[in-house]
Structure formats: C-alpha cells, structure tokens
Amino acid sequence: MIPRHFPRMVLAEIRKVFTQGSAIAALSIALVVGIGAVAGYAWVQSFDESGPSFNGTPVSQIVIASGIETAGKALWARNFFVLPLFLLLASASSVGGELADRTLRELVVRPVPRWSILAAKLVALSTLSAATLVVTLVPSLGAGTALFGLTSEGASALGAPLGAPGVGALLGGYAASFLSDVGLICIATAASLVVPSVGGTVVGVALLLMADLALWGLLKLLGAFGVAEAAAVIPWTLGNALGGWKGWQEGWEPAQFGALAVFVAVSLTFAIARFHRMDVP
Asked: Where in the chain are the domains?
C-alpha cells in the first residue's frame, strides 16, 4: 500500500537531489552539450569552398546539418561517460551517502514502509535524468531546427533521405536513454546498499561495468571463432542493455530492452529486500 504522504516524500527527495553538486553539474553539462552541438554544426557550416575539405569536397557539404542531426549528436555526447557519471554520483549520494553520514535514519524511523523510501529516491533521481534529457533536447533540436531546418534538404519531417531516421526515431532515442538512466540508477542504488559510501558505490559500479566490458569482448572473440551462442548472449550483457538508446540510428534490438528490464527488476528486488533487513545506524 502506498503511504498517504508519498507525494510529499517524493517532493522532499527531489529538492534534496536537485541541490546536490552532482545534480547541478549534470544539468549544466546537459545544457552545454545541447548548445555545443548546435554551435559545432554552425561552425562547420560556416566554412566556404576554401575551407577544410575531404577528397576535394568541402566539409560543409559532407556534414549534414539539421535539427535532428544536432539533437542526435547532442544525445550521443550527453551519454558519453561524463553525464552518466554524475547521475551515478547523485544516485550514490542519495542512498550510500546518507547511510555513510547517518542521515538516512531520520527517514527510517518514520512510520512508513521502507520500500517507499527507496521508491521516493528513485523517482527523484529519475526526475533528474528526465530533466537533463530535456535540457539537452530543447536547445539542440530547437536551435538546430531554427538554423538548419528540422531535416536535411529534400527530406520530409518523418525521415531524411536514404532512410536516415526522423524526428520520431530521435524522440524514441531520448526516451530509450531515459530508460537506460533508470537502469543505471537502480543498479547504483543496489550497489550503495552493499557498499554504503559514495566512493565505494561509484568504484563498485565502475568495476561491474569493466567486468561486463571484458565479458562483451570475450563474447565477441568467441563469435569471431564461430561460436553461435556467443552472439545470442551479447545483447543481454549490461553494457549492451544500457546502450539500447543507440537503436534510434542503428535499429532497435528488443533483446537489449528485455535485458535492461531484467537488470532493473533484479536490482530493485535486491535493493528492497536488503534495505528491509538491514540495520540503519
């Protein structure tokens, strides 16, 4: 049963999360990425015939400029290591940090189910993820469309020439990125209940991702040697599951989202069970 004052718990957690340095940094980076993608395309498009070229063709004619392209590149830059790291830090601070400095006890002693405490924190962290995505999408798509048009020349609003993805696929990529963020947040929350400190959680999740990358490399190697089962397992690795958002350009793989759902379910089940049993000093 959901506690009657659960919405107030969520609002309190949102205020707490959004005042953290990691959250402020995440929002700032997301905004810079959104604006920077448009600025980068505008800079390339400013080259004339005497500017940089490749095989005799000016770079400004090679690089396609459109609102969809700028927003797509902004999404790629947003998900390239730095911003997920700040989301990981915010997640670690929300549970592991409060366990380490013993402020979580103030919530535990209240007459509310323990699962609702974790749920409020997860909603607040997911809100941070959504905010960073909006802060990246709005300037990159808006300014990119104002400067270059929604799609490249000769394209319709639903798709660019030669089968390039359109605005629907782009928005799907941002939605899938939100799901990937939620997966990372759930994993970090579970880890913070095993290693109750910000640094320990970040290191633990980093080691998990490194081990998963090594597994991915091994599976790729086995696949190159003709082991058919290896290729079937790759979509179910953690890194591949978290990278499902890339499908907006490369084509969606349902197995990636199935794997992400499994990782989220396992992480939440473990986190709730452990938090329910553990003593909070």
From this structure: 6-277
